[in-house]
């Protein structure tokens, strides 16, 4: 084997990926052999092979996120500093999708940030903001944003500076608008990447790593669509510990393997639906219902 070079995977499609070297140069690479399959964000060592490159080694990952396709769970991004869940006053967001994204981030050990866009819409914005109150109480940062009016853009910038942030959001919340606003020439970069990956028709279907700054310190990772987050790598009994509001009440149950659903002497259930003004450990009823649904889903998952 000749010399190898350091790089980072900035886009991946099937067995092809685009690797960026420390000098900013990008090269199309393939994994060597069956091993070494990569995801966006991976740090790799690669070697020259004609005009292209071969991935020789995938360096140890700080963290890894999974997405769910049908019944399979696939990894799709690694080495992230935070996950930004973009929601909007309109369309109305799903509490379940939000919970899944936050649980996936927590399980991967990645900080999460909720951003609520379309501040200019007034009443619908206030309603959506109120629905996010349980999240503010459990300590998740929730930022208001108005991409149309630039409301909150500076505060968001400050949160993104120097970090690599995966952006997720359901359709219509303004994700493309946000990426285009924060990444100079995002469109041109996308075109370049899809040409390099030879997937011209798939311009928006690959997860892509974009630099927000010329110094390449702040990155946005855009993943198309709102990923149905893969939670199948988790076990039902872990779930309560991955939900900060539920986690805060743990430790007082009579049974150490309490599922917090029907056991006597549960220390969590008495906090469900209480008034946050008098109970600092109050658990929102919707969150508790989602916990039950996810618990059943994980308990019933197929074993391979
Ligand atoms: N009122 C209002 N509309 C906004 C704001 N930001 C974005 N929009 C609009 O919301 C719509 C969706 O924006 P996009 O950026 O295309 O949203 P997206 O999340 O990428 O949606 P998909 O393309 O479906 O994935 C567009 O019509 C935007 O103009 C905002 O702050 N206020
Ligand atoms: Zn319990």
TrEMBL record:
One GO molecular-function entry: rRNA binding
Matching InterPro entries: G_CP_dom, NA-bd_OB-fold, P-loop_NTPase, Ribosome_biogen_GTPase_RsgA, RsgA_GTPase_dom, RsgA_N
Its EC number(s): 3.6.1.-
Binding site for GTP: 117-120, 169-177
Any single GO CC term annotated in Swiss-Prot or TrEMBL for this entry: cytoplasm
Residue stretches making up the EngC GTPase domain: 78-227
UniProtKB keywords: Cytoplasm, GTP-binding, Hydrolase, Metal-binding, Nucleotide-binding, Ribosome biogenesis, RNA-binding, rRNA-binding, Zinc
Intracellular or extracellular location(s): Cytoplasm
Subunit: Monomer. Associates with 30S ribosomal subunit, binds 16S rRNA.
Family note: Belongs to the TRAFAC class YlqF/YawG GTPase family. RsgA subfamily.
Protein name, per record: Small ribosomal subunit biogenesis GTPase RsgA
Species this protein is from: Hydrogenophaga crocea
Gene: rsgA
